[in-house]
Amino acid sequence: MDPGWFVSVEDEVVEVEPAPGVFMRPVFGEGLNLSFVRMLPNSEAPLHEHDEEQIGFVLSGACELTLGDEVRTLHAGDVYVAPPRVPHGAVTRDDGCRIIDAFAPPREALRELMEQAMRRRSSPDTTA
After folding, report:
1. 55-86 pLDDT per residue, tens
2. How far apart are CA 32 and CA 36, in angstroms?
3. 14-122 has which CATH code?
4. What pTM did the predictor assign?
5. Nearest of 78, 41, 89 to residue 56 by alpha carbon
6. What does the domain layout of the chain look like in residue ranges?
7. Distance in angstroms (rounded) separating the CA atoms of residues 110 and 26
8. Which residues contact 76 (CB under 8 A, 6 or more apart)?
């Protein structure tokens, strides 16, 4: 059995940008992953769907979340549940927002984005 581990999200987890102004720091366990999301003001996580269930908790700020056919403005303390394969996306206005998303099972597309970002960080810059 894995004894577990500790992570400093800000210091140790690579930040990825899946859409302009939308930043995520995913942390993976065996059966789920958490993603620490930072959306800048006037940014958009475009409408998308995936096979994983997603539950999100708005930590600060606000966003307009589309979930299926419904649109709501979410504020700090609000939670949403996106079942597998249900289209969803978010838009911020003048305020950005911070969200913690949980995915079960772990979202492999996020793992791939994170691995790509880590490879870019470790490879020498050949553009100079």
Report:
1. 999 999 999 999 999 999 999 999 999 999 99
2. 13
3. 2.60.120.10
4. 0.89
5. 78
6. 14-122
7. 7
8. 58, 59, 60, 61, 62
